[in-house]
Specification:
- Helices cover 43% and strands 15% of the residues.
- It has 16 helices and twelve strands.
- It has a six-stranded parallel β-sheet with strand order 2-1-3-4-5-6, with helices on both faces. A six-stranded parallel β-sheet has the order 9-8-7-10-11-12, sandwiched between helices.
- Strand 10, helix 12 and strand 11 form a beta-alpha-beta unit.
- It is globular, with a radius of gyration of 22 Å.
Length: 364
């Protein structure tokens, strides 16, 4: 095996590399998963009515976790919430994010649910980017959960008596190791909308990337200025979670860039609340057993170890240097990727988060 690893590092298996690399990576992922003990989940005694946001991957992950953890679970739209709560009489109505697709009178609907004697909770997973909106909603819930550590004190200042930090996670159903077809194989991939900091980074790397196999996918990438070099790599539009996972699995390096928090930069955050917590993409990429290179958020080291189970970068020059290094050092790339899978599957799953949420809400 050492001889094969040396050949990979030296680039001497070029004719066989794509298929061999795919099988070798996947086999390593399976070995990692086989070594993780399966812990019994146990049932919580509460019955839950879940109100989704429309974030496909997160909603589906939470519904799956509720099926595993809650005594019973039912799903209803925001428009149906009050009627379903009156009929179903759950112990908890859990609302995902309460933004974008929710009716303008959602706060009044939550008050009606509480008047029935039913506990209510919201999990804000878009913080701090829409705090101008969530500030108006937060006081109407019994419990406020946020994935952004800097938002805990903010919601307390808004008058919420019970505010809890609850980080995001990855679904082991949607995001997991898998073998992929050649069309999903890239040297470098990024999937996400073209917020301005992301555009600036890729524009700066345009010449460096033009001779590599690259995927840049999502919305608003017409903002790029280095179109001649980068447009051939762009796939416009939304990509479903299942296909996103295939790109993550097939790519040798997946880049993660957190969106800016500054007001006016595609955000409703006039208080300039900082972003310290990592985004869901951090967990999802790692759950696929792929080498991730991410910009640095203050909370990253709480969950991953840079250089061990994730790689970080400070700027475009640092990122280009590390891309070059890991593309030339296949075994090191895979070792980091396998460790990222192990960490994620052990500690960052939605059943864990939902268990914590239900235990917290029922402890009032």
């Amino acid at each position: 095996m050492d001889a094969v690893r040396n050949l990979l590092d030296e680039g001497r298996l070029d004719g066989y590399a794509p298929g061999f690399r795919e099988g070798y990576r996947f086999g390593g992922c399976q070995a990692v998963l086989d070594d993780i003990p399966v812990e019994p989940l146990g049932r919580h005694h509460w019955r839950v009515l879940y109100i989704p946001q429309g974030f496909d991957a997160i909603d589906r992950s939470i519904m799956d976790a509720l099926e595993q953890i809650a005594a019973e679970c039912k799903v209803a739209s925001a428009a149906e919430m009050v009627a379903e709560a009156a009929t179903y009489q759950p112990d908890l109505v859990l609302v995902m994010n309460a933004l974008h697709v929710f009716p303008a009178d959602h706060a009044e609907h939550i008050q009606l649910v509480r008047q029935m004697g039913i506990r209510t909770a919201v999990w804000f997973v878009d913080d701090p980017y829409f705090t101008d909106d969530t500030a108006l909603l937060c006081r109407h819930y019994d419990d406020v959960f946020t994935h952004e550590i800097s938002a805990v004190s903010f919601y307390k200042e808004m008058g919420c008596p019970r505010v809890h930090y609850l980080p995001l996670a990855a679904s082991s159903t949607l995001y997991s190791p898998q073998k992929t077809a050649p069309k999903y194989h890239f040297d470098v991939a990024f999937i996400g909308n073209a917020f301005w900091n992301r555009v600036a980074l890729f524009d700066e790397m345009a010449t460096f990337l033009k001779h590599k196999k690259v995927l840049i996918a999502g919305g608003f990438w017409e903002r790029l200025t280095q179109k001649e070099n980068l447009n051939p790599f762009v796939r416009s539009g939304w990509i479903p979670p299942e296909e996103t996972a295939r790109y993550y699995n097939g790519s040798r390096i997946v880049i993660n860039i957190h969106r800016p928090t500054t007001v006016g930069m595609d955000n409703h955050n006039s208080r300039d609340l900082p972003g310290h917590s990592i985004n869901p993409r951090t967990y999802e990429i790692n759950a696929c057993g792929t080498l991730q290179m991410t910009d640095i958020r203050e909370g990253l080291k709480t969950y991953y170890r840079p250089g061990y189970d994730i790689e970080t970068f400070n700027d475009a020059q640092d990122l280009m240097s590390k891309i070059e290094y890991y593309l030339a050092h296949e075994e090191e790339r895979l070792q980091v990727a396998w460790r990222s899978l192990c960490t994620t599957r052990k500690y960052h799953t939605y059943p864990d988060r939902i268990r914590r949420l239900l235990d917290t809400s029922s402890s009032y």
